[in-house]
Design goal:
Layout lengths: L3 E5 L6 H8 L6 E5 L2 H15 L6 E5 H10 L7 E2 L2 E2 L6 E2 L8 E2 L2 E2 L13 E2 L2 E3 L3 H6 L3 H14 L2 E4 L7 H12 L4 E6 L18 E2 L3 E2 L2 H6 L5 E4 L5 E2 L4 H11 L4 E2 L6 E5 L2 H8 L5 E4 L11 E3 L8 E7 L19 H11 L2 E8 L1 H5 L2 H4 L9
Parallel strand pairs: 1-12, 1-15, 2-3, 2-11, 6-10, 11-12, 16-17, 18-22, 19-20, 19-21, 21-22
Antiparallel strand pairs: 4-5, 7-8, 9-10, 13-14
Helix pairs in contact: 1-2
């Protein structure tokens, strides 16, 4: 029997709900996600199911997990650059480490990995370098770190699996493949490369030559004594079937619905209907970027809407998707990142989804700018 599970889910299929109902309140559980907003959502759902957060269950961000479980308890034996053993007071989240080069020249303020200052600033770990510090420890130290997890944790849950990239993914994969730890990781493959963070790494989703991997190739990364579940959360509870069918037809992403809402999508093509929707405060307007520039509130960027649910939303299309409603439209030459970002935006609405072409919005754009474009920084 597999010791760990990778669950590949559809957008809006109830990943948070499933975790809350799956966990055993009598076990020692760690539930890990990326953002504080997701932590709040998980805590709310768990409390709804169990009446409270179970005594031995912790819900925390990935950064908090790394600091509190993989670094802080082992500081006396950590090798941090040229220091053996450190004492820290937390995680530095306001200052980024100095880059190796600035303006094409070597940066004299940069510290190499053999200097403890590569990882620590004013007795705090650089958030972006904590994972590297864990992975760079000796086999003996990493063994001790894992043994503590074995002792104090029965089950680890990872939410938003597709957001684990770069070194974060390396660490997650280490835990998933460790037969002494039970891991349950859930996410939507087609939301990868749509992150609310500033991470630039595309590992593991991009191969050499900047070619994105397929879902089948992604599954192979977890080969071994690991169960891949593609059935349990295959249907979206949020997205109506009519919109799911449109997504399948246009973006070639398989998604189906368990919603009993009929649903509706529509391309707005007259000035009156466009203005009516843009000025309706009950409809969330989704821009590819720079949503803060517009006064047709509420507004949000496509990628930043990830994890949100709206009753009605309106997507202002980019030039790339100008022909989305045309019969001959094809996404074959588009990147996974382009397709997935629109997929995220299209899977937020529970009832109605409206679209506006970029060319149509441009004619009315000046009306909705907070400032004149020449004044925007």
């Amino acid at each position: 029997m597999a010791h760990s599970t990778i669950m590949l889910a559809a957008a809006g299929s109830g990943k948070t709900y499933y975790i809350a109902n799956h966990l055993n309140p009598n076990e020692k559980n760690l539930i890990i996600t990326y953002t504080n907003q997701n932590v709040a959502n998980l805590k709310r759902e768990i409390t709804s199911v169990h009446g409270e957060i179970p005594k031995n269950t912790q819900v925390l961000t990935f950064s908090s997990f790394v600091y509190r479980w993989l670094l802080k308890p082992f500081e006396p034996i950590l090798e941090v650059g040229n220091k053996m053993g450190v004492i820290t007071s937390g995680v530095e989240i306001n200052k980024e480490p100095e880059p190796q080069r600035k303006n094409g020249k070597l940066n004299f303020r940069y510290f190499k990995q053999d200097d403890y200052r590569h990882y620590i600033y004013n007795q705090k770990y650089y958030s972006s370098r904590m994972i590297s510090l864990v992975l760079n420890q000796s086999k003996e130290v990493k063994k001790i770190i894992l043994q503590r997890l074995y002792k104090f944790c029965d089950q680890i849950y990872f939410d938003e699996l597709q957001d684990f990239i770069g070194k974060d993914f390396d660490l997650l994969l280490t835990l998933v493949k460790d037969k002494n730890i039970k891991v349950f990781a859930v996410g939507d493959f087609f939301q990868h490369s749509v992150s609310k963070s500033n991470f630039t790494s595309n590992k593991p989703f991009m191969k050499k030559g900047k070619i994105y991997i397929t879902k089948e190739e992604y599954k192979l990364l977890f080969k071994g004594d690991i169960f891949i579940d593609e059935v349990t959360l295959i249907k979206s509870r949020r997205v109506p079937q009519e919109i799911c069918d449109f997504i399948k037809n246009k973006l070639k992403i398989h998604i189906s619905s368990s919603s009993d809402v009929k649903g509706h999508y529509e391309l707005l093509d007259t000035e009156s209907t466009i203005s009516e929707v843009l000025e309706d405060e009950n409809i969330v307007k989704l821009f590819f970027k720079d949503s803060r520039k517009y006064n047709c509130l509420p507004t949000i960027n496509w990628g930043y809407s990830k994890g949100d649910t709206y009753k009605r939303s309106c997507i202002i299309l980019t030039k790339t998707f100008e022909g989305l409603f045309e019969k001959e439209f094809s996404c074959d030459r588009l990147t996974s990142s382009q397709i997935n970002t629109l997929y995220v935006a299209m899977t937020r609405a529970t009832d109605a989804l409206y679209f506006i072409k970029e060319s149509d919005f441009k004619r009315l754009k000046a009306r909705y700018l907070i400032l004149n474009e020449s004044e925007l920084v």
